Amino acid sequence: MQDAITSLINSSDVQGKYLDNNSLDKLQHYYHTGDMRARAATAISANAKTIVTQTVAKSLLYTDITAPGGNMYTCRRYAACVRDLDYFLRYATYAMLAGDPSILDERILNGLRETYNSLGVPIGATIRAVQAMKEVTNSIVGAEAGKEMGVYFDYIASGLS
Ligand SMILES: CCC1=C(C)/C(=C/C2=NC(=C\c3[nH]c(/C=C4\NC(=O)[C@H](C)[C@H]4CC)c(C)c3CCC(=O)O)/C(CCC(=O)O)=C2C)NC1=O
Fold first, then answer.
1. Where, by residue number, does (2R,3E)-phycocyanobilin bind (predicted)?
2. What is the SS3 assignment for the chain?
3. Is there an atom of ligand 1 within 6 Å of 113 CB?
4. Is 117 one of the annotated binding-site residues?
């Protein structure tokens, strides 16, 4: 896993240089938004269950997916989907705190599309659920932190598509 600080320092180090102005601007932005990131993570962890429940209500409930024959039909598969959504939320929050998406590649996206395809989990509906989660999270953490979280939800969605 990388974070905004190590990735900027590493890229200067391989060139044997001090951080240039562009890197310093990025670092300053990261430090400047540190308090916002910490507050957003606190709000998300306090509301994680609500966020997941509202995401399901907004994007999946009462669709073909939850009806007999759908991929979320039966309690076991419904619970697996809710659990996956909670993984997405938790790892997007880690990535937002780190200011870097690499943890999503390592822990979430690596092999996920292949797993979903082999189990018949619909990718399009999963991506729509991630978009719904982005909106729900935005309404809980506010616009500035919501935009930052949005970067990592979009990263998951595009990594799956
Ligand atoms: C921490 C990283 C991590 C991830 C991301 C993860 C995902 C993951 N989701 C799975 C299953 C699943 N995932 C879903 C999800 C859905 N079905 C739908 O129709 C919805 C659109 C969607 C929810 C948004 C379902 C229903 C299953 C069970 C499929 C089955 O066994 O038939 C499986 C197969 C094994 C299992 O059932 O537990 C994995 C590995 N596991 C991990 O350890």
1. 71, 76, 81
2. CCCHHHHHHHHHHHCCCCCCHHHHHHHHHHHHCHHHHHHHHHHHHHHHHHHHHHHHHHHCCCCCCCCCCCCCCCHHHHHHHHHHHHHHHHHHHHHHHHCCCHHHHHHHHCCHHHHHHHHCCCHHHHHHHHHHHHHHHHHHHCHHHHHHHHHHHHHHHHHHC
3. no
4. no
98: CA distance to ligand 1 center in Å?
A: 25
Residue nearest to atom 12 of ligand 1 (CA): 80
Mind listing the pLDDT tens digit for each residue in 46-87? 999 999 999 999 999 999 999 999 999 999 999 999 999 999
Supply the mean pLDDT for the chain. Answer: 97
Q: What domains does the chain contain, in order, with CATH numbers?
A: 34-160 (1.10.490.20)
Atom of ligand 1 nearest to the CA of 76: 28
76: annotated binding-site residue?
Answer: yes
* CA 130 – CA 150 distance, rounded (Å): 10
pTM of the model: 0.97
